[in-house]
Specification:
single chain, alpha/beta, TIM Barrel, eight-stranded parallel barrel, three-stranded antiparallel sheet, globular
């Protein structure tokens, strides 16, 4: 109810300004328990060797700098994913770089991994009290060539390892030039091999094995899906997240903002993301848990992801259009679907 009242005011502002203002106004009340939302049912899920209190998570990108972990944890998520973080701080692409398409219930962003860098990111995490399942999404700096990209990912993995429940390797953002080329077979296998080797050394050092997840693009052909699935299986990656944002503008050709560059999320992405998720489920045949993300704006959308093969789901754009009550709605819908299937 509160968000429904606030949304028209927020949507009157520039999208990036509204995003920052929302956190500025809601952070302390959420952390202190002064804002209440529908109760999220407990429905434990085991995936990646981790126990999730419920299957509804926050997607990376909303809290890039891990500044609002305690506030977001108060919304009832079963897990949070923060980042993307890169080794060095970077400003990202120039503004404007974030656009709403309300008629389509969609967003376009071309942020470009804007973040405070590893040092400040980890300082922020050190102040967080929330101790739920925390994913940390890692990437390369915009000026690091792909030939040296592994160095950035390895540096991030080593630094975030002690704080992460799992680490997501982001090679699928469309807003860093050349990044998606890292999804190509040889480059991907080389990167994953090096990350897995480092993870094993870190597991010995820290006395625990942190799972690795791979986040993929929705703009993949069937041959690419087969190659990525084979790499995930061969390198023993612990989970696959399908999907990131899309460069496609299907059904939006006449929208005033459709020509803005960047990744499209929200309702127009839903079917494409779900189809890619289902294709990976068919290739991996239950060997690797899948996390479904892209276009979830209702409980029914969340159930659709699980029906396509996901064990867990993540929200981002739906929170902007529907507000925090979407978390409990999705969890309840999944619980109901699970009971009906039992």
């Amino acid at each position: 109810m509160l968000y429904a009242l606030a949304r028209p005011l927020l949507f009157a502002l520039d999208p990036e300004t509204a995003h920052l203002l929302t956190f500025a106004l809601a952070d302390a009340p959420l952390r202190l328990g002064l804002l209440r939302f529908p109760r999220v049912p407990l429905q434990p899920v085991r995936a990646m060797g981790l126990e999730f209190p419920n299957p509804v998570g926050l997607a990376a990108g909303l809290d890039k700098n891990a500044e609002h972990v305690d506030a977001l944890g108060a919304l009832g998520f079963g897990f949070l994913e923060v980042g993307t973080v890169t080794p060095r701080p970077q400003a990202g692409n120039p503004r404007p770089r974030f656009f709403r398409l309300p008629g389509a219930r969609a967003l376009i962003n071309r942020f470009g991994f804007n973040n405070v860098g590893l040092d400040a990111f980890l300082d922020n995490l050190s102040r967080a009290r929330w101790r739920g399942v925390l994913g940390i999404n890692i990437g390369r700096n915009f000026d690091t060539p792909n030939e040296r990209a592994a160095e950035d990912y390895l540096a991030c993995l080593e630094r975030v390892y002690a704080r992460a429940s799992y680490v997501t390797v982001n090679v699928s953002s469309p807003n860093t030039v050349g990044l998606r080329a890292l999804q190509e077979k040889e480059r991907l296998e080389m990167l994953l091999d090096r990350l897995v080797a480092l993870r094993e050394r870190l597991a010995d050092r820290h006395g625990r094995r942190v799972p690795l997840a791979l986040k993929v693009s929705p703009d993949l052909e069937s041959g690419q899906i087969r190659e990525i699935a084979a790499a995930v299986r061969r390198c023993r990656i612990d989970a696959l997240i399908a999907t990131n944002t899309t460069l496609s503008r299907d059904s939006l050709e006449h929208h005033a903002l459709a020509k803005e560059t960047g990744g499209l999320s929200g309702e127009p992405l839903r079917k494409r993301a779900t189809d890619v998720l289902a294709a990976f489920a068919a290739e991996l045949r239950g060997e690797v848990p899948l996390i479904g993300v892209g276009g979830i704006l209702s409980g029914a959308d969340a159930v659709e992801k699980l029906a396509a093969g996901a064990s867990l789901v993540q929200l981002y754009t739906g929170l902007i259009y529907r507000g925090p009550a979407l978390v409990a709605e999705c969890a309840r819908a999944i619980a109901h679907a699970n009971r009906a299937a039992a």
